[in-house]
Write a structure and sequence with these properties.
The protein has one domain: Amidase signature (AS) enzymes (Alpha-Beta Complex), CATH 3.90.1300. It contains 15 helices and 13 strands. The chain has an eleven-stranded mixed beta sheet with strand order 1-3-2-4-6-5-10-11-9-7-8, sandwiched between helices. It has a two-stranded antiparallel sheet with strand order 12-13. A hairpin with a 5-residue loop joins strand 10 and strand 11. The longest helix has 26 residues. About 1% of the residues have low confidence.
């Protein structure tokens, strides 16, 4: 069984652990062996912590054998984006400026998951300080997409998406300031949730933009994502796993036309809408005023807040920061206080707009998770400051939950993604719809074939 454990769902692995058919130590050993075999090419991890992992796994095993089973995360291997602080384990945020940072306390989300019995395997790579871009002089190797090693895994929670898709962990923690959970989920073919603002504590995460930062889970299956989020926020969700008949599903056709959608994405998105209709949803058009300025508003807020956090260090020790991060954040010094205040006022207007849309027009809004499949790594390096991911930032500004999930593949075999958003506090609704879609589409049963691929070419396979 050792070699087949890595692509179990989290929930299936948990059932085996609860029934004592598989031990947490066996799960941990299987995952660490897989990381050892494949992460030299994928670079999902910055730091792997086998000693701490085995100690936690042995402790979980002893508790379970003594009848003290804590729940579906007990003994389950996961990992954390490396801007989430972990006691006694270096937390670098993928930056030379923090290469020696070893926290003396866990972030609240780490404490919650540890209390649920999860086994941490280490710290996952990201784009520098959650706002950089891959470059040749990165502090650590840049992750690559497990479906194709010449393509980007998305950012900034890059390692989180890679580790989940590659079967290194059953779930990962990411952060999302403008789409940084949903982008890697989208292009790595996994499920990523940006919850409602404030639902999951950001205490102990390395801030980029406090008014936009969110913490959330990435998993291979929808139900597993809900399990992780419940532990992360300390609250349960009443879920049915079904799409309620008559659910109003809003399609923002104006936005989709504006951003320009890749033909393969368009085809898969239309198929998803048709499937939702067949499941009993009522498809409606919704308009999204202010979309044209969403990117500018979000960028202005992030720049000012990132400048407040990092401006002094950028001026004193610029050599400790990558070019993309430095060039972005230095722009924050040029934003007038009045312009920042206007951006915050515009954000409040966006929040009011979405409250109205969800109250009067639609129960959820669906769109592609990204307007295109994964970018080639070289294209990303050639244009690190380019505007991407225009379908995600509005939900950070609106502070509502948004979930990305698989919806098929491009002609080149790259994952495509559907995004579903709902009113604030409606995570359960998103999970219900997503779980029903997952059940009938089967897209989450496909995984990259790491064993069969060469250094430059990847493929996929289905594991039912």
């Amino acid at each position: 069984m050792h070699t087949s454990l890595h692509y179990l769902s989290l929930s299936d692995a948990a059932r085996l652990v609860e029934r004592r058919l598989v031990s947490p130590v066996e799960l941990t050993r299987a995952m660490l062996d897989r990381i050892q075999a494949h992460d030299g090419r994928l670079h999902a991890f910055i730091t792997v912590t086998p000693e701490q992992a085995f100690a936690a796994a042995r402790s979980a095993e002893a508790e379970i054998m003594a009848g003290r089973y804590r729940g579906p995360l007990h003994g389950i291997p996961i990992a954390y984006k490396d801007n989430v602080e972990t006691k006694g384990i270096r937390t670098t945020a993928h930056s030379l400026s923090m290469a020696g940072h070893v926290p003396d306390a866990d972030a609240e989300v780490v404490a919650r998951l540890s209390n649920a019995g999860a086994v941490g395997l280490g710290k996952l790579s990201l784009q520098e300080l959650a706002y950089g871009s891959p470059s040749a002089n990165d502090a650590f190797p840049s992750p690559v997409n497990p479906w194709s090693l010449v393509h980007s895994p998305g950012g900034s929670s890059s390692g989180s998406g890679v580790a989940v898709a590659a079967g290194f962990v059953y779930g990962a923690v990411g952060t999302d300031t403008g789409g940084s959970i949903r982008h890697p989920a989208a292009v790595c073919g996994v499920v990523g949730m940006k919850p409602s603002f404030g639902l999951v504590s950001t205490r102990g995460t390395i801030a980029l933009s406090p008014t936009q930062d969110h913490v959330g889970p990435l998993t291979r299956h929808v139900r597993d994502n809900a399990v992780m989020l419940e532990a992360m926020c300390g609250a349960g969700f009443r879920r049915t796993g079904k799409l309620a008949a008559g659910t109003r599903v809003g399609v923002p056709s104006d936005v989709i036309r504006h951003v320009g959608i890749d033909p393969d994405v368009h085809t898969a998105f239309k198929a998803s809408i048709d499937l939702l209709g067949a499941l009993g949803a009522v498809i409606v058009e919704v308009r999204t005023p202010m979309f044209e300025v969403v990117n500018a508003i979000g960028t202005r807020i992030i720049l000012v807040e990132a400048w407040r956090r990092y401006g002094a260090a950028l001026q004193e020790t610029p050599e400790l920061f990558g070019d993309a991060f430095r060039h972005r954040v230095l722009q924050g010094a040029l934003v007038a206080k009045s312009d920042y205040e206007q951006a915050l006022a515009a954000q409040a207007e966006i929040q009011r707009h979405y409250e109205t849309v969800f109250a009067r027009q639609a129960d959820v809004i669906v769109s592609p998770g990204r307007e295109e499949p994964a970018m080639p790594m070289q294209a990303l390096r050639d244009n690190p400051l380019g505007v991407r991911g225009q379908l995600t930032r509005m939900y950070n500004l609106a502070r509502v939950p948004a979930l990305a999930m698989p919806m098929g593949f491009s002609a080149d075999g790259l994952p495509l993604s559907l995004q579903i958003a709902a009113a604030r506090g409606q995570e359960a609704r998103l999970y219900d719809i997503a779980e029903e879609l997952e059940r009938v589409s089967g897209w989450t049963d496909y995984h990259p074939d790491l064993e069969g691929q060469s250094r430059s070419q990847a493929g996929g396979s289905r594991h039912a």
